[in-house]
Specification:
The chain is 6% helix and 44% strand. With 232 residues, it is mostly beta strands.
């Protein structure tokens, strides 16, 4: 039951539309503490899946964000729950690079909402036209300031454009599975970047996961992936 509730929270949070904490828009510009983000290494992901509700199988396409951490190898980190379902072999997951959708494959992943991380690989890294964001595997301190960035729709219309936005907030709590912040983000930001900026140097500190019960945002620290990534 606990896992089911956590999963429901995670899916509602940054995956689907949730009314609490929605950033308002004025003339198409994001408001509520959000502003355009300048990071080419944070990309849109498009993930076709099959799910079963116990009565029937249905198709969904999840819109998420991901962060390029290795340009030469085409490695993108994102959230596991973006891949929660059966992948459609006729429609592989994709990332937006170089003006089009580029095929991805899923590598290692946490396999559950309590380990909400995934490592993906571009089938052809040569399509990358973005700069990777260096990662850090260090522990994070409560009260530290972080910047979160991911894709969200700007405007209320169904055909509203996706825009890369960011917000700055503080770490409020560190738990067994997530680090909690007082950030506010919405649909499409799942899998996006949590960054620390010190002395003009930006490092990836975590992966956006879900909204907390307090209305902030949980993220998975990059230190949880230290088995797969060497210290930079």
């Amino acid at each position: 039951m606990v896992i089911s509730v956590l999963r429901l929270i995670g899916l509602c949070l940054l995956f689907f539309f949730c009314p609490q904490g929605v950033a308002s828009t004025v003339d198409g510009a994001p408001q509520g503490g959000l502003k355009p983000a300048p990071y080419s290494g944070i990309v849109r992901l498009n993930i076709p899946l099959k799910r079963n509700d116990g009565a029937k199988t249905y198709h969904v396409t999840e819109d998420c964000s991901g962060t390029l951490v290795d340009r030469d190898k085409g490695i993108i980190v994102t959230a596991w729950h973006c891949f929660d379902g059966k992948m459609d072999l006729t429609q592989p997951p994709k990332a937006w690079f170089n003006g089009g959708w580029q095929e991805l494959r899923l590598g290692a992943h946490g396999g559950g909402i309590k380990d909400d991380w995934a490592i993906t690989y571009l089938s052809d890294p040569n399509v990358v036209d973005a700069q990777a964001i260096p990662y850090a595997l260090t522990d994070l301190v409560i009260g530290s300031i972080v910047t979160m960035a991911g894709y969200q729709r700007v405007g209320q219309r169904p055909d509203a454009l996706w825009s890369l936005v960011q917000t700055t907030c503080a770490i409020t709590k560190a738990g067994d599975y997530w680090v909690e912040t007082d950030c506010h983000l919405e649909t499409g930001a799942s899998g996006g970047a949590v960054m620390q900026i010190k002395g003009g140097h930006t490092t990836l500190a975590g992966i956006i996961s879900a909204r907390s019960a307090q209305g902030g945002v949980w993220f998975v620290p990059m230190s949880r992936l230290n088995f797969y990534f060497s210290p930079p």
